[in-house]
Amino acid sequence: MNGLGKGIRKVEVSLKWDPSPAGEPPADLDLVAGTYLASDPHGDADYLVHFDSRSPDGTIMLNRDSSDGKGFGWDEVMTLELDRLSERYARVLVGVVIQQRQGDKTFATVDSVAMRIREGYTVLAEDDFGGVPGSTAATVAEFVRDESGAWDFRPGVHGSDADPATFTRTMGALRR
User: Fold this and answer.
1) pLDDT 10s digits, 75-102
2) What is the dihedral of CA 78, 39, 156, 171, to 10 degrees?
């Protein structure tokens, strides 16, 4: 097989934001990925990867985590090795949730929030969440395995006003 038609193989999802102004509670945004079985691609995630976990097989991991946006450059970075993911999986969603520990935070209330998805040096998507300003969470990427086994990328930021636990439990049903 030549290099054509292999689909998306390994991607990096990056998230950044500015720290909250002095005297305000820190904004804590988290990347989360959910894997969905071929037998139920819009049901419950088979497993989730987030700040406290990684995939059982090591194919999805959070490489950088921030609880306040005080990192240099990208505050959160997640790597997804889709080409190594078991054939049991037909869909992977990546989302961003805003922790709601102290008051209601939305994307509009977080300074300079941005995300980037790239494969190698090729940028697949960039967004500033301007299309979902009142949301507290959003899916930012959908990867779907086609009949040949190659992964396709479906871009788009889709907002939600759910709390982090509800969002991660239902994010697979959000995009049909």
Assistant:
1) 999 999 999 999 999 999 999 999 988 7
2) -70
